[in-house]
């Protein structure tokens, strides 16, 4: 057997290969003592090596376990925050107090939220501050974030922040800021792939243009959004979209009776969409919209039912603005049924709610109703107080709306100017060198200045035309009776007096026909004031057919009318009065929903040489009309001295 010594690995390897040629028993007998000797000399080295390997492996396993645990906990925490934010987003307009309280609980976790979660949290928080009336708390975080860049995947949150900021500016009547932000927002909406941003953006635009009474503009945006309602999967989106469209259609066509059925259907669909989404605030508004149409159709019982449902929903939220509107509508119903005392109770409830929310348009309506109801109840002092308050709020709102329109025109011009500047700069960078840039810039500045001047002239011209039309409109309102469309007493009597003075100098006859309606108070009491209004308009319509172009048909007040007839003898005036009497008697009232007969009593007087003014002729005509009242109904009496 060779003398083998285990000094190194090579020696061990040679010995091992050599030993493989031996039998197993011989191997054990020959090499076991050598193996034992080797282990004995190197035991402490092997032990230290094993210990190091165990420590390193254990540490690696523990570190890996800690990393996995931290990652798992982070995932759980992030998912919890996502779930909390999603649940709050669903109820932000339904339960504002719950949202506010939950945000306070979530706020300590803001620093551990990812970027998207921070955006969502800020949107909810700003919305909550806005509802509580904290303007700075609502706007400052949004302005700060909008000044920073957004990543591609988070661009939709930039749009949502712009929408919310615009809404807050509008709510707090910062019209210039509102319209500037809106001009930035609207061009972005068609390209954003976020249905929620589109819904809120176009709904907001429709609402702002509606406030400015630009109803056609508001309807344009709400109609565009409504065309996509069948593609929307979220009931909330369908609810908001349907609300915007129904409200815009009502604002634009609410006075058109032919549209009542369409508007009623839209409000009914709106209620169903919002009931699925549990949006009680908008459900209440839809019920009030239906109630208004029912009120115009004189279906008072069903209108009351809708209003009661709306008050119940608004009280649950609570939403005082709709509560105030509901009580105003209840008061109008009671007034239509001549229940003025109950109407006074309802309108006082409306005033209490409106003063709490400080909604000036609603307060204006309340004071107007209070003045009219108190006057009906004989409380003149209170009526005057409320009339003055109504005038104060009316002036305030008129000034505010005027400022809003000016802001709209100003920001619109600014927007167009900036748009032209951007186009010019882009073209300049692409096409021209530095020297050509300067030259083209000067030329474009001159063009823009000319365009601005021309645009300003156009705007001023349009403004002047609009002011002229408004002036004519107000002059017409001042000269004519709003209900019947004929001259009011002041205007009609002045025109007649001037014509009489001119005719009397030429010795031309001038006749006056006075007439009033029999038992008109009975019509109002039995069928309501709306029916009385219908009768007055119908009477004026038929009498107008007997009037010549030179005649001056005037409403003297209530159910009393005067027909001033230049160059007309007493006999001709009597013929005209007889024809008018016959036409009035022939009015078919079945189309109004009730059957009754309309009668009138006439008094006629013609000028004499002794008359120095129209007053004496009117006095004689009044005496003649009184004689008709004493003698018989439907009578035409010519003044005869007693």
The helicity comes to over 70%
β-sheet strand percentage: under 5%
Distance between the termini: 175 Å
Instruction: Round the mean pLDDT to the nearest integer and report it.
Output: 79
- Rg is 43 Å
Strand arrangement within the widest β-sheet reads: 2-3-1-4-5
Sheet with the most strands, sense and barrel status: 5 strands, mixed
- Stretches with pLDDT under 50, minimum 5 residues: 1-24
Order of helices and strands: HHHHHHHHHHHHHHHHHHHEHHEEHEHE
User: Which structural class do you get from the secondary structure elements?
Assistant: mainly alpha
- From the spread of the alpha carbons, the general shape counts as elongated
* Number of strand elements: 5
Number of helices: 23
Keywords: Membrane, Transmembrane, Transmembrane helix
Catalytic activity: 2 GTP = 3',3'-c-di-GMP + 2 diphosphate
Enzyme class: transferase
Protein name: diguanylate cyclase
Q: What's the quick description here?
A:
The chain is mainly α. It is 74% helix and 5% strand.
Feature tags:
mainly alpha; 23 helices; 74% helix; 5 strands; elongated
